Amino acid sequence: MRRLGLLTAIFALAVGIVVVFGDSPGAAQAQPRAHVYLLRGLFNVFSLGMDSLTEELKRRGVDATVHGYGEWQTLADRAAADYKAGKEAPIILIGHSLGADAVMEMAAYLGRKGVPVALVVPFDGTKSFAASDNVARVLNLTQRDYAYMRGGPGFHGTLSNVDVSSDSSIDHINIDKSPRLHARVVAAVLAVVGNHKAPAKNGNAADAGTPGEQGGSRQNADNPAPPAHKPPAGTQPLHTEEVPN
What we know:
This protein is of the alpha/beta class. It is built from five helices and nine strands. The longest helix has 21 residues.
């Protein structure tokens, strides 16, 4: 009888441990994981730089997936659900051409669902968009000034329009494949993922923490006085940078 009582006590103790440590809220929940969504442009065949950039990010341990630009709303619904379930954060959006347009729309759509976006990187979008107020940072890589991005109502993140038009080797078809632009984007993504939180918001200033972007237009020996490109009239002043050959 004494042995039976001892076994019963041990069993009760084991059950208690399982209840306390196994079923307590958050005890067994995985930490949210950063996710980078990359969107290709027209026909899914002119933006294969998004595929290679996806692989670069995966090699660095970043959860990255590539999709067609037409999937953006379905992806946003899934991302919002995963974010609210504590499975996914921070969220990063990258796209080329029509995919660049789509990531700006996707960011705004996520904002309407109350979901923050840590970083949006459009590669040569087809037009200008207003960055929504849920976005912490926009890094717009473009070779045409009519596709400069601007801050929308309530936007207090950082926004840079990086003009690569002075580099004759880059055009709309291959901008998404540029190794040096890939390196820049990977660095920006890793900065966000490493912090595991959205970058600090400090107004529409230069992108903090990125070499060569500490305020004003970039100047260097190869391009001492970059020509002034103006964002659309009536928009907030933004950091603009010209990238030389």
